[in-house]
Amino acid sequence: DKLRFDFSHLEAMTAQEVADIENRVNAEIRDNSEITTRLMNIDDAKNSGAMALFGEKYDDEVRVLAMGTGSDANQFSIELCGGTHAKRTGDLGVFKITSEASAAAGVRRIEAVVGQAALDFIADEEKTLNTIARSVKASSDNVGEKVEQLIAKGRLLEKELEALKAKLASSAGSDLASQAIEGNGFKILSARIDGTDVPTMKTTLDQLKDKLGTAVIMLAAETEGKVTLLAGVTKDLIGKVKAGDIVKECAPYVDGRGGGKPEMAQAGGKNAEGIPKALEAFQALAGKL
């Protein structure tokens, strides 16, 4: 009640190609043609149009299976095969492809089911479709359209969220800038901003660089159990210290490691309790510059 078939094909099959194959096979099943078995000389079998599998070894006499209307090469399928088969194509009931994937370079593989197994597979798909339809308050007829609308709405909300984060980062940058202390001709700022994701931290760091002018900065955050350290150095100071060196010095305190470019570097860790010591280490390092 199931099969696997490998064939030469350079790219993934489209949904339409899969549907075309299913329709063609199911049409042959509905025709309910007789499946004939003949024992033939291997050369005669090949000359009749029988399909032999590459790499397989065959005896001088082979078993030839044929099905479909017409004769010899005009039939739907003629193959050399020693397996057990149905008596008529209609015995298969219905054919349904369950998966299509790469089997090797230039080789695709389809897996399919027939008969009751195919009906069970279709019933499971319908059950899943109905569950999704109920979840999005749609019917099985318009569930696809409804899901696309929700995805588009989600993407729009993501853009709006990113815009709000950028606005908050700008505001946070203004508030944090006032906490900077004077170093040896530059500003030093360390701050903990828990719950902030990495993109927002980077935006905040850029805002702080613009506001402080000449500065070394360390931002730390614990978000969803993960620790992020982000170091920034303005261009005019990278001759004295590099952001990558800062995070390498501070990351061990949060059981992490990291690196990056001279002007911005990042470290990830898992020990939030070490954040205060990491910020203290940064302050000590910056104070020596």
3D architecture notes:
The structure is a single chain. The chain is of the alpha+beta class and about 290 residues long. It has 2 domains: about 130 residues, Threonyl-trna Synthetase, Chain A, domain 2 (Threonyl-tRNA Synthetase, Chain A, domain 2), CATH 3.30.980.10; about 130 residues, Roll (Diaminopimelate Epimerase, Chain A, domain 1). Helix content is about 40%, strand content about 25%. The strands form 3 sheets. The chain has a 6-stranded mixed sheet, with helices on both faces. Helix 4 runs parallel beside helix 5. The longest helix is centred in the middle third of the chain and has 35 residues. It is elongated.
Short description:
This protein has 289 residues and is an alpha+beta fold.
CATH class of the largest domain: Alpha Beta
| Number of beta-strand segments | 12
Q: Could you tell me the strand content as a percent range?
A: 25-35%
Class derived from helix and strand content: alpha+beta
Tell me the count of domains: 2
Overall residue-averaged pLDDT value: 88
Strand order of the largest sheet: 7-8-9-10-12-11
Biggest β-sheet description? 6 strands, mixed
Head-to-tail CA distance between termini: 75 Å
Q: What coarse outline follows from CA principal-axis ratios?
A: elongated
**Approximate helicity band:** 25-40%
